[in-house]
Amino acid sequence: MIYNKSKAADIYHYPPATFKKATVLFTENVAKKELKVLIKAGGNKVMQIYFYSTMRKLVKEVLVNNSQETIIKDMQKGIYFYDCFDNDLKLKSGKLIIQ
After folding, report:
1. Residue spans of alpha helices (H) in the chain
2. Each residue of 38-53: b (16+ CB within 10 Å) or e?
3. Cα(46)–Cα(87) distance, rounded to whole angstroms?
4. 79 in Cβ contact with 99 (< 8 Å)
5. Within a 13 Å sphere around the CA of 61, how many CA atoms are in the beta-carbon half?
6. How far apart are CA 61 and CA 42, in angstroms?
7. Tell me, what DSSP letter sits at residue 15?
8. The model's pTM
């Protein structure tokens, strides 16, 4: 393939996505072996949160209602990374330790 400088100038560069502010709160109930998740953000009513192992393997995908607590019952002890999305817009990511 030959690089054509005149055609490269025609490519439209989209502005970077603007991120909404979001707060993700986790509460662990060791006695009941539950993890409570609360996401506070503007936007859609239902958001997605993905949990990954330390090897970045997808462990769990959960749908969470905006500003409503969601209970997850089958999370094992360990270290996880999470990504929170509103449709395709990443709102928040971080690390979670379940003891």
Report:
1. 5-8
2. bbebeeeeebbbbbbe
3. 9
4. no
5. 6
6. 20
7. P
8. 0.74
Q: How many CA atoms lie within 13 A of 35 on its CB side?
A: 20
Q: What is the pLDDT of residues 22-77, one digit of tens each?
A: 889 999 988 888 899 998 887 668 889 999 999 999 999 999 988 889 999 988 89
- CB-based contacts of 3: which residues, under 8 Å, 6+ apart? none
User: In terms of Cα–Cα distance, which of 15, 41, 34 is closest to 74?
Assistant: 34
Q: d(Cα 99, Cα 95) in Å, to the nearest integer?
A: 13
| Terminal-residue alpha carbon distance, the chain | 54
**Sign (positive or negative) of CA dihedral 75, 49, 61, 70:** positive
Q: Which of 50, 48, 65 is nearest to 96 (CA)?
A: 50
Q: At 7, which amino acid appears?
A: K
CATH of domain 20-98: 2.60.40.3080
